UniProtKB/TrEMBL annotation:
InterPro entries: Leu-rich_rpt, Leu-rich_rpt_typical-subtyp, LRR_dom_sf, LRR_domain-containing
Lineage: Eukaryota, Metazoa, Chordata, Craniata, Vertebrata
Protein's organism: Acanthisitta chloris (rifleman)
GO cellular component, as recorded: cytoplasm
Residue span of region Disordered: 172-195
Compositional bias per record (Low complexity), positions renumbered to this chain: 172-185
Name recorded for this polypeptide: Leucine-rich repeat-containing protein 58
SUPFAM superfamilies assigned: Outer arm dynein light chain 1
Length: 205
């Protein structure tokens, strides 16, 4: 019948899977320890409302954590996974030259090689199209890296790197890439949308 368990600040290095045998547990505090991984068995804590894991050594979370459908608060700040997540989101804003180049390319501003210096003509020729089919934008030096998992032959999930023109431009691959994916790809996108709604509850700071 235990509902609240506080184990913070005890130099704990691992979470015993036996904690999953506390069906009434609603609040679990494991902050300020040395925990490196979360046992998937914790997904059996269906009554859990709050899970405090900040200031540990976590580099990933198990997929099973999405089964905690009643979880309202998940604190992760001060873990390597959050530090890496924030670092990967860093985005150097485009330079004035790139902003001008993007405008020229996206608005189809006409120009001839005789109108611009040779280095600018060469620069404009290096524009890359954003893979987001709903965007239609371009980028030069300033872009956002993103991993997209694509089904290959219906058997393998290949992580492919693609580049977006801005952090807000985070839709799936271009339609050409989408045509090569299987039904399981759309299924995974549905799962990702569910996960995204759940992740709104995560406290990163």
């Amino acid at each position: 019948s235990l509902e609240f368990l506080y184990l913070g600040g005890n130099f704990i290095t691992s979470i015993p899977p036996e904690l999953a045998k506390l069906p009434s547990l609603r609040y679990l505090v494991l902050c300020d320890n040395k925990i490196q991984s979360i046992p998937p068995q914790l997904a059996q804590l269906h009554s859990l409302r709050s899970l405090s894991l900040h200031n540990n050594l976590l580099t990933y979370l198990p997929r099973e954590i999405l089964n905690l459908v009643h979880l309202e608060e998940l604190s992760l700040r001060g873990n390597p996974l959050v530090v890496r997540f924030v670092r990967d989101l860093t985005y150097n804003p485009p330079s004035l030259q790139e902003l001008a180049g993007r405008t020229v390319k996206t608005r189809n501003v006409p120009y001839a090689p005789s109108d611009l210096p040779e280095n600018l003509v060469r620069y404009l020729s290096l524009a890359s199209n954003c893979p987001n089919p709903k965007c239609g934008g371009v980028y030069f030096d300033s872009c956002v890296r993103q991993i997209k998992f694509v089904d290959f032959c219906g058997k393998y999930r290949l992580p492919l790197m693609h580049y977006l023109c801005s952090p807000e431009c985070s839709s799936p691959f271009s339609s050409a890439s989408q045509s090569s994916t299987s039904q399981s790809e759309s299924d995974s996108d549905d799962e990702a949308s569910v996960a995204a709604r759940r992740m709104q509850k995560v406290l990163l700071g």
